[in-house]
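Continuing the batch. This is chain 6 of the set; chains 1 through 5 are on the previous pages. Same settings as before, nothing changed between runs. Recording input and output for traceability.
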Amino acid sequence: MAERFKTLAFYAQMCYNASMKKAEKQAALSELATLYPDAKPALNFTTPYELFVAVVLSAQCTDARVNIVTAKLFEKYSTPQAMVTLSQKELEKYIFSCGFYRMKAEHILSASQDILDKFNGEVPGTVEELMTLAGVGKKTANVVYAVAFGGDAIAVDTHVFRVSNRLGLAKGKTPSEVEEGLYKVVPKTDWSKAHHWLIYHGRQVCHSQKPACETCTLSHLCDYAKK
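Output for chain 6:
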């Protein structure tokens, strides 16, 4: 009988801990929404195609730098029709300061040709179609789908990955694991907003090297801060 009560107590504690963890996750999301009610993309764009190019350029590069580069690039080459008139070497000169410029130029030109050949010159509006474009992975597809087309998706970049793991919102060793974890805890209507909340928090508070735990209003809910 004593062993039975120990077993029941063990499972009761597990359920209690799971319930508390779920409550903490919801509290963390609520606080993020309060902290960053106006969170929005930092990249400048006017069309889905411009956003697509900017997102490709933003890999391992700051949004501020991308905005400087695209301000000049989009003066003449803001459509796939115009972009493919550039040679790779010519495009590389425009985007050199964004880093990984050879690979990015190749991807932009190949994807632009795909858009012309496969989608009548229009950026496709689903994640699945976007991922058929040259050089486009899940993160890029999710960003374009959510931001340009108002779709429900969470793009896991380095900030989202880091903050989600530290807070305990969604733990994972890969972006896809974190993405799936976030889909389970974040209401679908908040998916695209939560993406920006986590990015803002990663940039402003939960820095990679020296997170500002002492001033963070989420520290009491954060697995990283509790350690």
